[in-house]
């Protein structure tokens, strides 16, 4: 089993990152380099979270083995450990051989840092650029990132000059590397505490509110009103951009040197707009014969960028609107079925996607009713209580993890109790649950936050390339300080425990933070305590209230604006529901009509001979059979049908079979 656990987790984490990226990204439409870079960033960050518990159990085993094989005299007091018996130092099932973990962490860490500080910012500008060639996009990306890179180089250069001039500093390469790592982790820890404070409160509260059907339905109505406003704004913006594209397409003809750029822009437009613009083109008009002012290539680049953004936004709002409608219809169905006497879940509309037969066999209407109407609310309440308990433990440990005598951090107490008995499975499970909960609180906040329309992770393949790359940057910057914070909570970091014990492989790669004592003994210890203030602010929704005061509509139960938006969203959902019901009724009538077509065709074939033998009688009675419909048309419909008919030719030599052209039919 040596190294087998490491290999299994590497494969599992890869498919996990691939699944999440497939949910948010679009493999068919987005550039392959964007998909690969984002997948690599997500994969490395998730890999650190899953592999770190194995590093902890391996380190505990190495400490035990070192304490058994070395006497205190030979150690010279270098390792302060209790010498257990040899029977207690058995090798864990997930033991990783020496030398593998340092190389593994070094490759993973420096690759993620290269992605977050150099490659991903450059690819962001490249993906958002409106250039028509690779060279043009690279040039635009370099110009946009010149200030970004120049700021860091200026700070780093000033620091090097200060170190070189000051005689008190005698830094070596390893110490300089540690300072760079400390600077990156300090920036990440600053953002980590902000996101963690929000997630520790919002995740349990969202699950508790998930058990309230009325709350979810009201919030869905609120989202519908906001999304309809955004959807209308996206449609209006797309119309304006398409009008500019039409003008440019009409002014730049096929023999113009910039026509290739216009064709590239047209390919990014929706199909209906492409067809509409293609009808008004004149291939034979020479642009040199007209004294028009043609747009420059720079203006076309800007227009290309606007087209990409507007089309992506329009498509995203359309998909989100359909998803929100399905969610609202389902919540209304749940509210109706709660009082059902048959205890069978009845849907208002049938699912548009084909359901799995296995799921249909086990997830019957009766099972669905018991789950949705009885079990699911209680399950969400129990889960919310468990998550709230974890949140309280995290907040307590963040405020007390610096205390080593006595040990007040609950996570450190759990790990030390398991370390005494060398229960490696319990150690790994405790470490995994701890860091997994911390990661969920931080990463879920990254998936929830929205910076206007520039950064927004939308599910169902609706996230643009810029947001995917930005999320990869955030993950790579947040994961290393998150892992260091976890090691501090469990007292596996020597900087926190103040013990000269063997460090974990991950800590050895980070280097000794004692080079910068004001960061190791100050910022890393006391700054995480701010999570208490952030949790209190999140609990009382102070951020939501501030955004609401600034004009950004937020869901607040005691706000008049929220009530108005709920009523508006409820009316929108009711309108869409009536529209879908009419569509289904029309499809049912059409299906019934087409179902009877075979019978009517068969009857016409049988009576063909009778029509030929009695033509005069048939021509006299045909108008009555023509306008006597089985679907019960009104008199107005028959009059409108006669008015829309083509003019009759009374000078015809022969009588047509059409009753509208016969004298009797007239």
From TrEMBL:
Keyword flag GTP-binding: no
Composition-biased stretches (Polar residues): 615-631
Positions of transmembrane segments: 6-21, 33-52, 103-126, 146-165, 177-201, 378-396, 425-446, 466-489, 523-542
Main location: membrane
Biased composition (Acidic residues): 655-666
GO cellular component, one term: membrane
Stretches with biased composition (Basic and acidic residues): 582-614, 632-641
Protein topology in the membrane: Multi-pass membrane protein
BP terms from Gene Ontology: adrenergic receptor signaling pathway
Sequence segments annotated as region (Disordered): 576-666
Compartments where located: Membrane
Signal peptide residue numbers: none
This protein's UniProt keywords: Coiled coil, Membrane, Transmembrane, Transmembrane helix
Name of this protein: LMBD2 protein
